[in-house]
Amino acid sequence: MPTFLYIDPGTGSMLFTIILGLMGGVFYFFRSLKVKLKYNGLGLGRKEKSAEKIPLVIFSDHKRYWNIFKPVCDELEKRGIRTLYLTGSSDDPALEQNYDHIETGYYSLDKTMFQTLNSLEAKIVLSTTPSLDVFQWKRSPGVDYYIHIPHAASDLSMYRMFGIDYYDAILLSGQFQEDQVRSLENLRNLPAKDLRYVGIPYLDSMKDRLIKADRSSDQDLPDATKAAETTILVAPSWGESSLLARFGEALLDRLIQTGYNIIVRPHPQSFFSEKPMLDRLMDLFPESDRLSWNRDQDNFFCLAQSDLLISDFSGIIFDYCLVFDKPILYTEVHYDTAPYDCWWLDEEPWTFRALPSLGQVLTEDNFDRVEKIIEDLLENPTYQAQRDLVRQESWAFPGQGAERTVDFIEEKLEDLDKADSEASQQAKQSKKKGEIHVLS
């Protein structure tokens, strides 16, 4: 093949992603146009615009993100900030809350949800969902400001390409995140976003919960949490590079032979995107007195009762190390960066640089020594100091996350109100000048 026709895999994947994005944008534009013509042409679905925008809308595409938003919602409720919480899960715990100032609503993740999102009338939208204005979720002309809140203490560059490009602001917990955002902005010639260091509200909440459980002599923890036997938690990410996809059968077979208690907690997305693989593993390794498969919405008890985590590049690693202060065993990283924002950056993702400080790497070559590796990790004090360093790099303002997040939201609401007031005054003055000119 002529060399001028060659495209390297990374560039090819990037071009493919861009083409898909363009095709998706065209498709959803015409589909949206069809819906608008259908309903507006018949005079249906029309309603007068509200004179007052909703101050804040929170969008969560899945119930698993309730732990991200709950501490923020509690603080919003305390301050009396009117909020609408939209979720894509009919059983989201948010729907069961009895807030006075926060309304909740459920829309299935179909065209109804995206039509609603794309025509919102709100001052601010807060979400942890990436790819705003990339595929079917578009910026609404009626929304003034979009804020992204990360759902883990890890890289912002590990979203799919263009995942955070079209947000107005990003909430941060570490300097490495700011570096990634600014680098992507420079590469793509994007306007600078508002970046605010607020910390990690859900980790604050988890830490408080752990402290309260300890103070109550573990009364809030299940009996298995108090057991003296060593318990290993296997909790990976999902996808072709994840632990279960690469090593599932071999790893679980070896772990069962150790005699430890084993909890396997697949990523929630695996039950949808990798169901055949999970079904096969659950058939091969059924539940027993030594092995359990966990699908709890709340991962707190799994994290609390285990002594060591085995994972890959999942964000749960940082929950485990930073809050519960326990060691990890992680698999070799064979991570295809081509579809992700980190492909554009020269520097290795911070997550992969931090992993060696938190535990040891597990490879197919040392599977047969996994019991000895686990024993060494549980007894080795070296990782304590290293976890402290990673905590300093990734968790700004411990204990203050929700308060600082809502501080930022309040500041932005005040700025937007001021801008609206000034624009209104200018419009009145212009109108008045026009009337005087006509009369003269």
Major beta sheet, strand line-up: 3-2-1-4-5-6-7
Question: How many helical elements?
Answer: 15
Structural class: alpha/beta
Order of helices and strands: HEHEEHEEEHEHHEHEHHEHEHEHEHHH
* CATH class identity of the largest domain: Alpha Beta
Total count of domains? 2
CATH homologous superfamily identity of the largest domain: Glycogen Phosphorylase B
What is the average per-residue confidence, as pLDDT, rounded to a whole number? 86
Walk me through this protein's architecture.
The protein has 440 residues and is α/β, with parallel strands linked by helices. It has two domains: 31-43 and 51-199 and 399-413, Rossmann fold (3-Layer(aba) Sandwich), CATH 3.40.50; 209-386, Rossmann fold. Helix content is 46%, strand content 14%. The protein contains 15 helices and 13 strands. The strands form two sheets. A seven-stranded parallel β-sheet has the order 3-2-1-4-5-6-7, with helices on both faces. Helix 2 packs across helix 15 and helix 5 (201-215) runs antiparallel to helix 15. Mean pLDDT is 86; it is low at 31-50 and 223-227.
Q: Mind sketching the topology for me?
A:
Elements: H1 9-41, E1 54-60, H2 66-79, E2 83-87, E3 102-106, H3 111-118, E4 122-127, E5 143-148, E6 169-172, H4 175-188, E7 194-197, H5 201-215, H6 223-226, E8 231-234, H7 243-258, E9 261-264, H8 270-273, H9 275-284, E10 291-293, H10 300-305, E11 308-311, H11 316-323, E12 328-331, H12 350-358, E13 359-362, H13 370-379, H14 382-394, H15 401-439
Parallel strand pairs: 1-2, 1-4, 2-3, 4-5, 5-6, 6-7, 8-9, 8-11, 9-10, 11-12, 12-13
Helix pairs in contact: 2-15, 5-15, 7-9
